[in-house]
Amino acid sequence: MYDPKSLKAEEFIDDGEILESLKYADENKSNAELIDSIIEKAKERKGLSHRDASVLLACDIPEKNEEIYALAEQIKKDFYGNRIVLFAPLYLSNYCINGCIYCPYHGKNKTIPRVKLTQDQIRDEVIALQDMGHKRLAIEAGEDPVNNPIEYILESIKTIYSIKHKNGAIRRVNVNIAATTVENYRKLHEAGIGTYILFQETYHKASYEVLHPTGPKHDYAYHTEAMDRAMEGGIDDVGLGVLFGLDKYRYEFAGLLMHAEHLEAVHGVGPHTISVPRLCPADDIDVNDFTNAIDDDIFAKIVACIRIAVPYTGMIVSTRESQKSRERVLHLGISQISGGSRTSVGGYTHEERVDETAQFDVSDTRSLDEVMKWLIDMDYVPSFCTACYREGRTGDRFMALCKAKQIQNCCLPNALMTLKEYLVDYASPETRAAGEILIEKNIPDVTNEKARAVLRDRLVAIENGERDFRF
In DSSP terms, which residues pair with 447 in a beta bridge? Predict the structure, then answer.
């Protein structure tokens, strides 16, 4: 029985409700009158139910699809402006005891070298990332209670936050590790993490159990209920995601939005971020073995419909996607991207490891500076801002500001100041020249006169060597 307020996975992600929603969407995919009414509802910027959003995703009327894309782009601008937040993944260990058949880290893979970074090696990786210009990381590790216990993760977080190299500092550490206990989530919260990220992979229970045949991740309910335990442990910024291509994309889309609705219903705050990874090649993994892979057009429509359904939630796309694919979805709803990424353990300091220990192949192989210049040339403001997290604007406090579209009053000046830091400390001459022009162009968009004056003063102070200002 479907119940978004239930704490049982099979009740807040109810298979029958998803199938009914997909049936309803199929029956109404050409119903112009209904689609118009859903689009009008979406224009209120208060989001859509999983069922209404499923109708938009299924819509087969070309002119209505153009309206959906245009609305997604406008909603993205309304809530996030022209800012794009940059981050990098940091892989700590690829030891894993799970048997996930789509991931090269699975325990039976004997061709991939197993590597676990020491704290000294983590320090070297973080210095390399700081020297690129990164301020926020997402740490990743396989599930292995012997090699990657919570104590190792906590020690690694402490190490990362402790490193101040030249003008560099990691100001926010997001964590993407396996589902764990309330007690361990409390420890992560006390360690000062930003967002706890966990991909569901697939919401289809039968497929989930086939795809995860062995290991603790096989337990569908324990995995799906992880976000509730995280929030009980004090983590109020959580990040959802599915791996599109494992099962039918429309089923996953509905399940993802139902999960967001569940968090809102139970905890009063939905997901801080939603990630949209797609299956891609990797060691021991052939995407041709999976029949549900999606093309670029479907991927773009998924991003647009998620943006419309949850207008206040950040959306993340990784370097799994090519430059062309990322450029397309940036317009439709993406607010965070990785740049200069390595998906291997030790990949930022040991180039030879990139192919040997990578979790997936990187499609966008450009350096961070090249990604920065690309964003600037498209008139986006690349941002390394971590102010909300560090000022306590998390969870319901962040969402309340975001839903009221007030978050931009501090986001744009914070983004411009972190961009200025990057330009002074790390940028190539070409990127710096383009970035300085972009900053001047965007200063008038800070509409509060006092804030604008403070921003100008702080930009001068950054030029003169001061760092880490925030509104």
Answer: none
